[in-house]
Amino acid sequence: MVMAANKPRSGSFSRNFGAASSSVPSIPGLKHGPNGTMLLSSGIPDLDKILGGGLALGSLVVVTEDPEAPHHMLLLRNFMSQGLVHRQPLIYASPASDPRGFLGTLPSPMVSKDEKSRVHETEQEKGLRIAWQYKKYIGEHTSESHRGGKSEYCNDFDLRKPLERHFFSGKQIDCVSLKESADLGAFHERCSSFLSQANQNNGNITGGRIAIQSLCSPQCEYSNREWEMLSFVRSLKSVVRLSNAVAVVTFSPSLVSTTFSIRLQHLADTLVSVKAIPDEDKELAKLLTGYQDMVGLLSVHKVARFNTQVPAILETTTFSMKLQKRRSLVLECINQAPVDGATGSSYGSSGSCSGSSKTGSFDF
Amino acid sequence: MANALPSNLLDESLGGSSGGGRMILVEDCVETSGAFVVHHLLKRALNSHSSDAVVFLSFSHPLSHYDRVLRKMGCNLSVQRDNKRLLFLDMLALDHLDRNRGKTSEDILIALYGEIQKAVEISRSHEARHHITVVIDDVSLMEVDANGSSDLVLDFLRYCCSLTAQFGCSLIALNHGDVYSTVDQPNLLLQLEYLADIVIKIEPLATGLAKDVHGQLTVTNRNLRVDSGKSRSRIHNFQFRIKDNSVEYFYPGSKT
C-alpha cells in the first residue's frame, strides 16, 4: 500500500495494519488518513476533527492573520507543543531577533483533575507504588500525563501552563530568525536539510513540523520582494510534499498586495483564517450566544486533499474560538442567538450554522 | 476502453471531437479548484483516439498525484507514459536542476518550448499519431518560476499557440482567475482569454459550497463560424458535482 510518503514501505504501514489496530496507531503522533495519507495532529482537538482527523503529512498549511489580534499564535503554539510532546522534529522561524523566546510560551498538555491528585499522591508516597495505579503510567516518567497509559494522538493543551523542560532536551528543535535573513534562499536550504534529516531517522516515520510565523513581516529585508516570497513558499511546498512533514506558514494579507495574497492562498493545501472579534460589540452580542467567551473567529477555506480530486465540503466553515476555563482552546460552531418574537426575522434556530451568513455585519 | 465517451454537458459545450487547433483556457479560483476539468480533458485526450498523444507540463504536482487521481477515473497514466502517448514534464524537478546550473528564466522557457516543439514534430512524423494536446498546470506557477516576468510567460504561451495553428494540436492551460482580478492594466489573464478559443470558468455558487453542488461552470466558446460568415460566441452555464471516478454536470435544479 503506497502512502503519501515518498518511500513506499511494505510492512507496518499498510492500510490493513492500521485498520486492525484502529485506536492505537503503531507510531505515536501519527494516524492514517483518507486516500492513503498519514496525518499528524494540529494540537487542537476540535481543529483536528474539523479538518478530517488532522494535518496530512506533506501538506502546506497557510494561516491568514488578523493584524488586530494574535490568534494565529494560539494555533502555532498548540501545533508546536504537540510536535514536541510527540518528539517530532521541529523548525520554527519568526521575525523576532531571538525566536527561542517563543518556546517559553508553548503550552503544556492538560493534566486532568484525577491524574493531578494521583500524581500528587505518588509523589508523597514515593515508596508506595500501588499496583493498579502503576499500570496507568506505563512510561517511566510520571510527569508526562498519559491517559490510559498510552500517548494521545492529540493532546488538550493548557495555555496557562508552560511546557516542561524535558520536552525540549535532546530533540531536533531549530529556531531561525527571519529578520536576520537577507534573503530566503538560505532559510530554504535550512528547511531542506531539516526535512532530509527528519526523513532519515532510522527509517521510521515520525512526522516533522515546520512553523513559520508572520512570513511577510516588514521587519524582514525581503518583505517587499513579493516574487521572492512566493518563490520560497512554492519551493517549500514542493520539498514538504515529498517529505513526512507538515509546514504551517502564517502571514498577514494586510501587509502584501491582494494578488500576492491570493497566489499564496492558491499554494496552500489547507487554508485557514483567523479573525478578531471586537470587544463590547452590542450588535454581535445580540446575535451570537456565548459572545463574551469568544476570543476570535476561525474559518476553514480549504482542506488538503491528496490523491483525490473530490473537494472537502464542510458542514460549516466558520467557528468561534473560545478559551475554555481560560485554559484550552476550543472551536465551536457559531450559534445564532434566538431572536425575540418582536422582530420576526428568521435567523434560524441555534444550532444551525451557516458559513455564508445572512447578516451583513459578518464578513468572513 | 470504449473510444466513444458517454456525452456529458461539458463535452457537449466543448463541441466536436477533441478537434485540433484549439486553445482552451481553464480559469478557477481559491474557493473552487479547476483541477477536475484538467483531469477530465486529460482523460479525454488520452482516450479519444489511440494515436493521440499528450505533453503535460506540470508545475504543481508530481506524476504520482495525477496517476492516482486518473486511475480512479479509469485512465492509467503510467501505462500511457510507457506507451509514449504521454510525455510528462515535471517542472518542479527540472526547474530545480536548471536553476542550479545558473540558467535564467528565459533560457529555461526557451528550452522548454524547444522540447515541446520537438515532441510535436516527432509525433507528427510518426505515421500513426496525428493529434497532440499540450496541457499546462498551471500558468500562475509558471509566473512564479519566471520570477514574475509575465511577458516571458505570455511569449511562451503565444509560441505554444502557434503550434496549434501550425500542427493542429490543442493547448489546455489552467490559470487562477482571482489572482488577476485586482490588477487593472492588461494582464496575463486578459491576454490569455483573448488567445483562447474556449474559456472554461469555474466558480462557486452565489450561495456558497454545498455537498450536492460543488460549483458552477461557464463555458464560452468563441470564434464559432455561422453560415453568414460572421463569428459569434456561445455560452453554456451549468453546475457540477465532483466524485472520485467522474464528475456530474447538470443544469441548475435538474439534479436527480
For this entry, give a set of tags.
heterodimer; A: 364 residues; alpha/beta; 14 strands; globular; B: 256 residues; 9-stranded mixed beta sheet; disordered N terminus
Structure explained in plain terms:
The complex is a heterodimer of chains A (364) and B (256). Chain A has 364 residues and is of the alpha/beta class. Chain A has 10 helices and 14 strands. A 9-stranded mixed sheet of chain A has the order 8-5-9-10-4-11-12-13-14, with helices on both faces. In chain A, helix 8 links the parallel strand 9 (208-212) and strand 10. In chain A, helix 7 packs parallel to helix 8 and helix 8 packs parallel to helix 9 (258-267). With 256 residues, chain B is α/β, with parallel strands linked by helices. Chain B contains 9 helices and 9 strands. The longest helix of chain B has 21 residues, at 105-125. Residues 1-5 of chain B have low confidence and may be disordered. In chain B, strands 3-2-4-5-1-6-7-8-9 form a 9-stranded mixed sheet, with helices on both faces. In chain B, 39% of the residues lie in helices and 25% in strands. The chains are: A alpha/beta (364), B alpha/beta (256).
Task: Give the SSE map.
The complex is a heterodimer of chains A (about 375) and B (about 260).
Chain A: H1 15-20, E1 30-32, E2 38-40, H2 45-50, E3 55-56, E4 60-64, H3 71-85, E5 90-94, H4 100-103, E6 107-109, H5 113-124, H6 131-134, E7 157-162, E8 173-177, H7 184-200, E9 208-212, H8 226-241, E10 245-251, H9 258-267, E11 270-276, H10 282-287, E12 294-302, E13 318-324, E14 328-333
Parallel strand pairs in A: 4-10, 4-11, 5-8, 5-9, 9-10
Antiparallel strand pairs in A: 1-2, 2-3, 6-7, 11-12, 12-13, 13-14
Chain B: H1 9-14, E1 23-28, H2 35-47, E2 53-58, H3 63-72, H4 77-82, E3 86-90, H5 91-100, H6 105-125, E4 132-137, H7 139-145, H8 150-167, E5 170-176, H9 188-195, E6 198-203, E7 215-225, E8 231-242, E9 247-250
Parallel strand pairs in B: 1-5, 1-6, 2-3, 2-4, 4-5
Antiparallel strand pairs in B: 6-7, 7-8, 8-9
